Amino acid sequence: MAVLSSSPKWPTVPDYFHDWALVDVETSGLRPGRDRALSLAVLTLDGHGRQTGEFSTLLNPGCDPGPVHIHGLTPARLAGAPTFEEIAPQVGALLSSRVLVAHNAQFDYDFLAHEFARVRSWVPVSRRLCTLALNRLVGPVTPDLKLGTLAAHYGVRQERAHDARDDVRVLSGVLQGSLDAAKQLGLPLPLLSCPPRQDYKPYVPKTPCAYRNPGRLAEGGPLVQGMKVAITGDTQVSREELAARSVAAGLNMMTSVSGQTSVVVTNDPGAASGKLRRAAAEGVPLVDEPTYLQLLENVQPGQAKGTARAGTAGQRRTAETPGNARTAKSTPTPDVPAQPTTAPTTPTADADRSLAGRRVLVLGGTHEEAAAARARVVALGASAAVNLSARVTDILVLPGGESDRRMSRIASLGLRVHDADWLLAPAPAPIPTSAQSTPGNQPDTAEVLVRGAVIDLPDADTAWTVAATWGQHTACDVDVAAFTLDAHEQVAGDEDFVFYNAPEHPDGTVRLATDSPTEQAVTADLDRLPLEVSRVVIAAAIDGAATFSDVGAIEITVTCGIGESPTARATLDAATTERTLILAEIYRRGDGWRLRAVGQGYDHGLADLARGYGVDVTE
Predict the structure, then answer these.
(1) Which end of the chain is less crowded, N or C, counting CB atoms within 10 A of the terminal residue's CB?
(2) Angstrom distances, CA of residue 158 to CA of 9, 132, 165, 351
(3) Which of the residue ranges 189-198, 324-333, 531-540 has the most confident prediction, judged by mean pLDDT?
């Protein structure tokens, strides 16, 4: 394991030289679109780490301050504070043209974006750096990655937790220590682009239809609540009034036509509109406006979302038995052919676990050779890393790996380097006892999962996060997405597809966070998911011609709470041609929840995967 210098210095390398704006926001809740900022602190630094400005204030949110027992900001304390509109120009001047830095930066950035939007402005920054994401790359040997823990690790004194002014002071020390550690490891900074929001009004998610889609309108049959309706061409009643009456009746109004559309309303079925061409291709029935208005008078009750279908509970209880929990096969994606991937590996009770507690980075080799080596590493009890970090203990060099640009850095860190024959030895050399006891050589305690392995998630009343990380030098973009599915492996509505264009379910139960260019995470509040949700599927996809053989391995880490140490981790390799990879699924087991590491790949894109789960995806 790499032992880094314990005396942090402000890095002077060009790639780390930026003007910084360190930010901490205390809030009335956890949802930026609904909750408000209560206090704000900004500290600006130049490229040498010298302070150039400072600002902090309480804020009058005009609403209930929320969990006073956490932040201590009572209505009485906030009553005389300025509103955000009053201090927005000053804050904007401090942020302008600087890199925004925060611990769990998406949270602070999103709250700032909404506060600025409420006063018809935007956050004047183009990039941000999350110190939590940076330290996930650095991998310091700490119990967790919370701000207070990292402060102690980097020698920074914390006086008042959840006080914005003190937190931003602590953050400056954590930033210095983190940058120095990243420099020693030769890591590029995970700077994330965040162009200024210019929508001038708070984001309000579309209110989803409250009913499940019952399917197509039958000939001579009634409309049923939840049916997806599209309108094309001129209408006698205004389009807005038709839509409003339809929504009031419980129908789901769509702006496009797909295979999930129930009916298209048109007064000119011979017109050459795109909607009518798609309806013809998909076999979607057409009705004219007078017929539709008559049908609107007698819309039949539909099945409300959030209620389980008949027999669902029984299906959940019989889905698995205790004997097959560790290797149970997941339900295949509907109408999506499986691709050939490596069969799940299940360690036996007497398996050689001589590398337990080690963390191995594989360099070089073809994709197939590297994937086989990582599988062997995991079978021997170690975890397979995808990036160099302070927690890496061993380097496995396959043919071509000796020319990796990181080898000089690895040599300076004194890490053990092995060739391919190392994994063939019946008992690879364990870490010496003396090394295990030193602060820089504490073993990785997260449970290492092979593909197909299952773990229980004991704290179902707490949000669980599955984060996906890939190599920092990946040339293509990877997108992570999540689907909340019922027992029939279908979404209840399109809002159950959480992805880059819709990063939060309207009820806030599932959220997608982008923490760095090579890391995205899905968080699920399991206790708040509707009873009908049987599982949450988490997938990654590549847009374009690249495949996961170009990306290499993806590592998932499973944590309970922000900044907590990982409960489990898995490193997943696709075969060669896949463009979509199911990473993991969280599913009900009796009254609790379990997580399975999946690693199943498909040759198609994310849109096809979404359609297989019943999402209405337009071309």
Answers:
(1) C
(2) 19, 17, 11, 45
(3) 531-540
